[in-house]
User: Fold this.
Amino acid sequence: MAVRTGLTVALGFLLVASASAEWSVVSSQNERGAAASIEHRQVVLTESGTNEEATLDLALFSTKTAAVRVIDNATGANDLSAAMPPAHALAGVNGGYFDPQNAPVGLLIGDGKLIAPFRKARLLSGVMIFSNGRLQLFRSAEYSFRKNIVAALQCGPFLVDGGKPVPGLNATRSARRTFIVTGGADRAAIGFCSSVTLAELGDILATPRIVPDLKVQRALNFDGGSSSAFWFAGERGPFSIPEQKTVRDFVAVVPR
Assistant:
């Protein structure tokens, strides 16, 4: 169950559209973080053709004042809500894919340490990197090893590229989703979405008026379904959507 605290209604009934779906923003609520550098925004949407509803939770931040960290959970001892406070995190989500033995699948670097190597696989189409104070999302084909990587996570699929939804995403299987996005200048966000298809999530994130102050340029999907989790340190206490099973790693936003 999500613990919801400190949310203030900011917007209602705003019509937004994309090329393949027309989404209406039913409500948008903002919550200040424990630090002024981050904000929680919860957006409730409906799709006009089917009346399908989705809820988007975003932790919006600037990389001028916040950094991204990968936290390894090798023993599976922690869930997201337990892992975030000791890391002094401002927000967090679950991270990448892992096998039945809890070994990470794809590139994983935490606190500058290589945990798992880069892999070539169709599903692992993107790489998140935080290095030299910059957060970047790369296509796997664009990735090359570089020094001074603080955090890296290989996952996929890519949801948005160049501000547009990626074509060919699965449009039949709905599940809970987590993701990371980069926007204009130094703007970025990590997020959670209630059960939608990958194609629907790409459409939602690429629609500018849904989150007008972010201007999403690229978005990368993390491990979804029962792994999906979201945590935010609100000014009045934590907001948490827990995962439904143990996961291998977490992506956290921390103060710089």
